[in-house]
Amino acid sequence: MSREVVIGLDIGTTSVKACVFDLQGKLIAVAERMNTFNYPKQGWVEQNPIEIEQSAVQAIKEAIQKAGIEKNELVSIGFSAAMHSLICVNEQGSPISPALIWADGRSYIQAETLIETMGKEIYSKTGTPVHPMTPFVKLLWMKETKYEPYLQAKYFMSIKEYILQSWFNQRVIDYSMASATGLFNPDTHTWNQKLLSLIDIHEEQLSRIVPPTEILTGINPQIAEEMGINSALPFVIGAADGQLANLGIGAILPGEVAVSVGTSGAIRQITRSVKISENQETFCYSFTENTTIIGGPTNNGGIALQWLKELLNDPRDFSEFLAEAEKVPLGADGVIFHPYLNGERAPIWNQRAKGNFFGLSVTHKREHFIRAVLEGITFNLYQIGKALERLAGKHQKIYVNGGLSRSPFWLQMMADVFEAEIYVPESYHSAAWGAAWTALVAVGKVNSFEEIKKNIPMGEAIVPNVENSEKYRIIYEKYESLASGMSKYF
After folding, report:
1. pLDDT tens, 2-43?
2. Beta bridge mates, 18
3. Strands of 292-298's sheet, edge to edge?
4. Which of 15, 70, 247, 417 is the most buried (most CB within 10 A)?
5. Residue pair 130/108 in contact by the 8 Å Cβ criterion
6. What is the pLDDT of residue 457?
7. Dist CA 432 CA 67 (whole Å)
8. Which 3 state secondary structure label does DSSP give 156?
9. pLDDT greater than 90 at residue 470
10. Which CA distances in Å does 79 have to 152, 160, 163, 350, 397?
11. Cis previous bond, 347, omega within 30
């Protein structure tokens, strides 16, 4: 009897990954293609959607070859994607603008104006804080600046939608990606007409909204041949990477929280209802018909460590670089770092925010900076987590994935700061496994999303050190007080 496998395609900001799993979640093969970025002006961050679509084709092709898959062994391919990208597309379906990604901050003036005038109203209706990351605010910038591709566009899409349209000639968007636009009503799963009128576009210019289990068939035969798959293979639209990372790591029940830290970071929890933060500290995005995900994203995860590594001109690999932090005691001998290098989303939602080192003296060395940056990233996540607890109750279990989860030292720091046990899956490709599992649900190979808990190989729990937790509690109070005091200078 031949084996059965499934692929999760994770279209991230940094790279496109195709991961081949067996139906129990064991990773068989992975292929990754790195994405390039363009920075035409200060605060502008763009990508080439055609390049990313081609990377997706090649990643699937390479993963299939690595795994040695026969065509009849592959049961489906599910999609995961980074949120908040925006492309202007013409009537023929071709992009006429680059993709403006989540990190693009060109619309900060429009965001600030909206926050002052109708920010609370928009947030209460959409669950999405007003911020330059969202396609809604980007579209307002396009309208107000008479951005030429906007004026000529027939449609507006994310990178994921563009790929789906290129492969299947369908304009569709799942609930979570629609939520992330800032133009979606999570209570009714419809586009918000008032916000569409503010940016002078019509519902027909956006994609049809569908659940994450929507099956897509009839892929372009040439693309199927290039990938090495049957042209009749069912694909499943899946969801955004945040929702699928929670699913893929098993954080799907009340009290279960997922923390992802790669280039950026996020802390998220799945709930059964729409939950809006009074202080607009968190997002609330739809996932399925009756579940949403609440949480907060940070702009500044591993990118802050990469910045420091480059600043120090350190040629070592990341594991050796991070090991330096272990040379100094908890608290980095008084150095506190606020990691707002790229502005910040949760919990302060301020694109003008700037990073800061506090408490420096002539005795501090390279290792103090490395530890302070690691602790600052962790404190920032903890601050978002506190906002999440105010909405959804105390965290019972914390699951962690992403690049930093490969550092045992940082995982112990997480456990100590959060004062909770930390669980890490054996595979760190949680969003891809979530996409693959969604595909299995859609095509009837498994019965429910909840069943995934039996199919996530998990490592040993990391237990907090009580003495360290007590020390971190004191340092965090200073971190939070400093963050509050700095805000008036941004």
Report:
1. 799 999 999 999 899 999 999 999 999 999 999 999 999 999
2. 9, 31
3. 283-286, 292-298, 265-271, 256-261, 397-401, 422-423
4. 247
5. no
6. 82
7. 16
8. strand
9. yes
10. 29, 8, 10, 31, 27
11. yes
User: What is the sign of the dihedral through the CA atoms of 379, 384, 386 and 389?
Assistant: negative
Integer Cα distance of 323 and 488 in angstroms: 35
Q: How many other CB atoms are there within 10 angstroms of residue 91's CB atom?
A: 9
Alpha-carbon Rg for the chain in angstroms? 22
CA 115 to CA 109: how far, in whole Å?
Answer: 10
The alpha carbon of residue 404 and the mean position of all alpha carbons in its chain are separated, in whole angstroms, by 14
**Token couple for 373:** 């940056």
**Integer Cα distance of 255 and 246 in angstroms:** 12
CB-based contact 427:433 (threshold 8 Å): yes
Other Cβ atoms closer than 10 A to 317: 10
DSSP string of 381-418? HHHHHHHHHHHH---SEEEEESGGGG-HHHHHHHHHHH
Of 354, 357, 381, give the one whose Cα is nearest residue 371.
Answer: 357
Residue 79 backbone dihedrals phi, psi, to 5 degrees: -105, 135
Q: Which two tokens stand for residue 285?
A: 């995005």
Task: Give the 3-state DSSP-derived string for 271-303, with helices as H, strands as E and coil as C.
Answer: ECCCCCCCCCCCEEEECCCCCEEEEEEECCCHH
User: What is the Cα–Cα distance from 488 to 477, expressed in whole angstroms?
Assistant: 19
Other residues' Cβ atoms within 10 Å of the Cβ of residue 117: 11
The H-or-E segment that residue 56 falls in is helix 49-67
pLDDT at 1 over 60: no
Residue 265: HSE in the Cβ half-sphere, 13 Å Cα cutoff:
32
Convert the pLDDT of each residue in 421-452 to its tens digit. Answer: 999 988 889 999 999 999 999 999 999 999 99
Vertex 178: Cα angle to 180 and 176 (nearest 5): 70
Residue position matching structure tokens 């997706």: 56
Find out whether 331 and 475 touch, Cβ atoms under 8 Å: yes
Query: Residue with structure tokens 């940082």?
Result: 410
Instruction: Determine phi and psi for 193, rounding to 5 degrees.
Output: -65, -35
Task: List Cα–Cα distances, 42 to 46, 103, 107, in angstroms.
Answer: 12, 12, 12
